[in-house]
Specification:
alpha/beta; 997 residues; 8-stranded parallel β-sheet; 6-stranded mixed β-sheet; 33% helix
Amino acid sequence: MKNTGIRISFLYVLFFFITSCIGIKNNKPKVVFAHIPAEINDLVIDKSQKTATLFEISNDGKKWVDSIYNAMTFDEKVGQLFMVAAYSNKDNEHYDAIDKLITENKIGGLIFFQGGPVRQANLTNRYQSKSTTPLFIGNDAEWGLSMRLDSTYTYPWNMTLGAVQDMKLIEKLGAQMGEQSKRLGLQFNFSPVLDINTNPKNPIIGFRSFGEDKYKVTERAIAMMKGMQGKGVFSTGKHFPGHGDTETDSHKGLPTVNFSKQRLEVMEFYPYKKMFEEGLASVMVAHLNVPSLQSKPNYPSSISYNVVTNVLQKELGFRGLIFTDALNMKGVSEFSTPGQIDLRAFLAGNDVLLFPENVPLALDVFKQAYQDSLFNDSRLALSVKKILKFKYYAGLNTYKPIEIKNLYKDLNSTKNKALNYELYENAITVLKNSNTVLPIKDLANQKIAYLKMGDATNSTFVSTLKKYTEVTEIADDNLENLQSKLNEFTTVIIGFHKSDIAFKNFEFSQAELKKLAFLSKNNNVVLDVFASPYSLIPVASFDDVESVVISYQNGPIAQEVSAELIFGAIEAKGKLPVTVTANFTANSGLSTEKLNVLGFTAAENVGMNPLILDKIEPIAQKAIDGKMAPGMQILVARKGKIIYQKSFGYQTYEKGSKVTNTDLYDVASLTKILSTLPNVMLQYDQHKINMESRLDSMLPIFKNSNKQDIHFKELLSHYARLQPWIPFYKATVDKKGNPLDKYYKKKSEVQFSTKVADSLFLRNDYHDTIMKLIADSRLLPQKKYRYSDFTFIILKEYLEKATGKKLDVLSTENFYKPLGANNTMYNPLQRIAKDRIAPTEIDSYFRHQIIQGYVHDMGAAMEGGIGGHAGIFSNSMDVAKIMQLYLQKGNYGNRQYFSEKTFNDFNTCYFCAEGNRRGVGFDKPQLGDKGPTCGCASMTSFGHTGFTGTMAWADPETEIVYIFLSNRTFPGDSANKLSRENIREDIQEIIYDAIEP
C-alpha cells in the first residue's frame, strides 16, 4: 500500500483469551485480536466532504500540547483515554477510589452522574487539584443539569423543543445551558441527541429526540450547539450512527438497526454531516448492531473499526473528539470483558473511553496490546494529543478552581424560568380546532367543566384555567353518573396529565380511552395532553373531539401556558415533531387567535428585573409585622402579562387562615371604578349623558335643589362642592350604637328585607331617606377639590333609574361575566364560602359582629350591600382584568366594551389648572408632593384607592397594572398605619424601579 497518509498493517492472529484474572500476581492479560489495524500514522479525510476548520490551535497551544505529551509516560498517555463515572451523592469510599484513579492511573476525565451541584463542584476542585494534567469534566445535561443533578433547573425535553419553530430560542437555550455547564466547571455537555426518532416504540430515545424529520432535528441541534459552544462548552452529537429507530434499550441489550448504508447516509447521517460543517466538537458512538456497516453479526458499533474510523472519520470527515457511549452498558459490556472492551473501542478509532468498568485492568490490557504491536505510538498520539488539544481549547492549560460562592444562585437564575415560558409558548401545539373552539370566548355564555385523566399533578393547570373564568372540576368513575353531571356544561376540558419524570409511562389506560370516547360523543371536548404526543396513538378516533392540544410535558409552566392558550392569551405556534396518526403527522399544527386578555410570564420577558421585584416581600412583611394589615394580595402586570402575583399573611392576626390568591377582599372605594364607573362610561358611550349633563337632567330628585346645576364632569371630578359623606347609620341607632327597632328587624320581613349583616335587616324605604339627605345637604362654601362618596351614590341611583336594572346586575351582565371576572361581586356570601373572604372589622358601634362577607362601609351596608361607592368584593386577578380593560381603552378579549374616545375623555384631568388632580371618576397622580401614588407613575396613569387598604393603578406609558388588596381595617380602623407608612406607595416605587432601561 502506498504511503498517501494512512498506512495500516493488519495482524491476522487468533481470537483473544485472558488466562487469569487481575488479582493473581505476575499474570498479565494476553490479548489476541483478529483484523485489527496495528498502525495508524494519519487519517486520509475524504476531501469531498465539507467540514469546518475545527478549533484551529495556536502555536502556543501546540507547544503546550507537545510539552505535556512529551513529558508523559506510556501509562499516563493511556490514562488520558479514560473518562470515569463519578458521583457526588456517594460516600468517602467512592471519592477515595476516584482519587486513586487520578493519582495512580492518571485518568483523563470524569463524567459526573447523580448528586448535587455544590457537592459536585467541591469534588471537581478536589479531583482537579490531584491531577497532574487537568481533567475533562462532563455531564449528561440534555435538558439541563437537572438530568443528573438535584437543585438545578429543568428545561424542556428535546421532543418539546422539536415543536418550537424559532431557532433563536433554541440557540438561547443552548447558551444558557452552556453558561450553567461552564459555571459548574464542565468542558463537555453530552448533548444534543441527533437521533431521528422514527419509531414510536423506541424505549430509550423517544422524548430525547427533536423528532422524526431529519431537517428539523438538524436545525434544532445546530442551534443548540451554537449556543452551547458559543459559551465555551463542547457539544457532543449522539448516538452515532443513529439510535432513533430501535426497540431495544442499549443499556439493557444490543439494539439492531436494519437499514441499508444508503438509507443511513440519507437519513441517520444527515444531522452529523451538517453539524460537522458547523463545527461540532465531539461525537458519541452508540452500542448498536448495524449489519450494513459491520459484517460481523451482533458486533457493537462502538467497537467497530469500520463504523468509527472508516465511516465516521474517513467518509464523513469528522476531526473532533470521539467518545464511546458508556462502556458499562449491556449493549457492549456483554460482548466482552472489562479491559478487553476498552481496548477494542480504542482500536476501533475512539478517542475517549466513557465509563470504563475497570481502569487498572484496562491499563494492563493496553500495555500487553502495545507490546504485541496491536497499536503503536502514532495511534496513541493521535487520540491523546487530540484530547490535550481540546483541553487547551477549554482553557484547562490555565485551570482555575470553581468558585463555590453563589453557585446555586448562579445555576438557578431567574432567566431560566423566563426562557422556559418562551419555549412553551412556542411549543404547545393545536392539532384540531373544530368550529374554532379555541380560544374559548363569549365567556358570559360559557359553562365550563374540567375533568382530569392521568396520574400526575394538575394543580397549576386548573388554577390557571380558573383565573380566566369559572371552571368546575367534575369527577365520577361511573360514566352515566359522570355524564349526568356534565349535561349542564357547554365545554368540557379534559386534561391528560402524566409524570415529567424521564422514561415514565405516558400512555392512556384502557379505562381512560373508553372514557374519552364516551365523553367526546356526548360533550364538546377540548383534550389537552400533558405527555408525549405518542400517547395519542391508541386513541381510536378523534372525530368527536372538538379540539386537541399537545402540551408535551406536565410541569407548572407547561400547564400555565397551556391554559393561556385555551383562553387566548397566547396564540398556538407549535408544530408536531412526530407523526401520531394519519391526520396528525409531523409538522402538523394549527394557529389560533390571540386575544388581548391577561397572560402570565416571567418578569424578564416584559423588561422587568425580578430581583428588584423581590423587594416587595419585605415591605409586605413589614406591614404585617407592624400590624398595618393582617394579610394582603399583590399583583403586578406589564404589557398584558402578570409577572407577580403573591399573597402574604393571614386573614386575621390570629393566623387562622393564610391568605391565598383566590381569597376575596372588600375593595371599598375601588367599587367606584370597578362597578359604577364602567357602567356610567357605557351610558356616555351611548350618548345618553355627556360631560356637560346637569344633575337635574339625570335625576329628578335634584331638580330645584342646590345641586341641580352641577355638571357631570364636575360631579365625577369631585369638584362639585359636595359634602365628603354623611354617617347615615347614626340616625338609626341609639346612643350606645344599638340598632333601633324602628329601622331594623332581626329577621327578614316584607318591609324589612334589606340585609345589613347577620340577623340585621333594614327597612326597605330607607334608601329614599339616604337620597333625600344627599339632595338636601349643604354645599361646601368653596369650589375646590373635595373627595365625596355622594358622587357614586348619586350615579348608582342614576344608572338604576336609566336602565331599570340594579347595579349588581348591570355590572355582572355588562362586565364581570364577559370578562370572566367571576370572583368579583356584591354580597359574596350568596355565592362564596365565608372562609374565602377576609373579614374587615369587629364592629362594636353599629352591627356588633365580625364583618366578614358583608360590606365594611356602613352606607353601602344600608343599601343592602350594593353601593355605587362601596360593596364590591374581589381578588387581585379580577381587579387586574378590569384595570387591563381600561389600559386597553375599553377593549378586552378582543371585545370593545366602550370606545377609546370614552376612555380618553374619562382619563382626562379637566381641572388640573385649578389644583384638582382628579380625572372623571378616576384618581390621578398627585400634582404636588402628596397624593395616591409613589410620585413615579406617569401623569397619564389612573386608578383608585380604598378605605380597607386597597389600591388599583394602571399606567399607559409603562403598561403597568398594580393591584394591592388588604383588610387593614381589621380588627378596627382607628389608626391607618398602612397609609401613614406609605406601604402601597413604597411597593409601587419598587415596581417602577424594576423597569429595565
